[in-house]
Write a structure and sequence with these properties.
Length: 120
């Protein structure tokens, strides 16, 4: 089994910053892509940012220039640095990973989510 545990959410004023972390643990052979998604009340889950095993990144247009995704592959951890936060960034943020277990089984896993609230 592989698990993802997120941390770093909370309440911040508009214009502020937060850093989310997501650590993978368990029977991991290799983690390929990792990413962050978010879901605001009454909205569908949407992509925020992804990062490949090689470090290539992709961002939603709404967060480009404000958010930065990075990873520490040695620690199976992905980060999301969020700057210049806006009230519309308020959502539950979910970590996602595409990984292979030590039995070479492919898994697509999600964390439990961490709430980010940006006040105006």
């Amino acid at each position: 089994q592989v698990q993802l545990v997120e941390s770093g959410g909370g309440l911040v004023q508009a214009g502020g910053s937060l850093r989310l972390s997501c650590a993978a643990s368990g029977s991991i052979f290799r983690i390929n892509d990792m990413g962050w998604y978010r879901q605001a009340p009454g909205h569908q889950r949407e992509l925020v940012a992804t990062i490949t095993g090689g470090g290539s990144t992709n961002y939603a247009d709404s967060v480009k220039g404000r958010f930065t995704i990075s990873r520490d592959s040695a620690k199976n951890t992905v980060f999301l640095q969020m700057n210049s936060l806006k009230p519309e960034d308020t959502a539950v943020y979910y970590c996602n990973a595409a990984a292979y277990t030590i039995s070479r089984t492919y898994v697509d896993i999600w964390g439990q989510g961490t709430l980010v609230t940006v006040s105006s």
